[in-house]
């Protein structure tokens, strides 16, 4: 008995494997629905399927030329800047979340897909009264701490 459709079996298996990977491997990646119908286009599907970084939170060790600069009196704000060291990724947004007396800063990346996308970033972050520490990324790397004498101390580790 001949199987006429056996030639299409590898294509079907690849499609199923891709769907399983996109739906089952979500940590630090975009959701399957966003990737399939989202703004990043079909390139993101292959990036996620191969397990490459894209649409993830940037961590301290992935940043080059990282600087933290205090702005204003009594550290009313911080300017953070640097460059994502993965040439395929652009920094797209910053999210700041307060946790008691600390701020957590999350820099989100995505693929460089259009002209003007860049891994370089510069953001100003307001420091509310009562915040004594700023950490970066999901690994919570401390990048700034308020000194005891009401002046701030920059962390350049």
- Report the β-strand fraction as a percent range: 35-45%
Biggest sheet character: 6 strands, mixed
Rg result: 21 Å
Number of helices: 3
Q: Overall mean pLDDT score?
A: 74
Q: What is the N-to-C succession of helices and strands?
A: HHHEEEEEEEEE
Structure, explained:
- The protein has 3 helices and 9 strands; from the N terminus they run αααβββββββββ.
- It is of the alpha+beta class and about 160 residues long.
- The strands form 2 sheets. Strands 1, 4, 5, 7, 8 and 9 form a 6-stranded mixed beta sheet that branches. Strands 2-3-6 form a 3-stranded antiparallel beta sheet, with no helix packed on it.
- Strand 8 (about 140-145) and strand 9 (about 150-155) form a beta hairpin.
- The longest helix has 16 residues, at about 10-25.
- Mean pLDDT is about 75; it is low at about 20-55.
Secondary structure elements and pairings:
Elements lengths: L8 H16 L7 H6 L4 H9 L6 E2 L4 E9 L5 E8 L4 E11 L2 E10 L8 E7 L6 E4 L4 E6 L5 E3 L3
Parallel strand pairs: 5-7
Antiparallel strand pairs: 1-5, 2-3, 3-6, 4-5, 7-8, 8-9
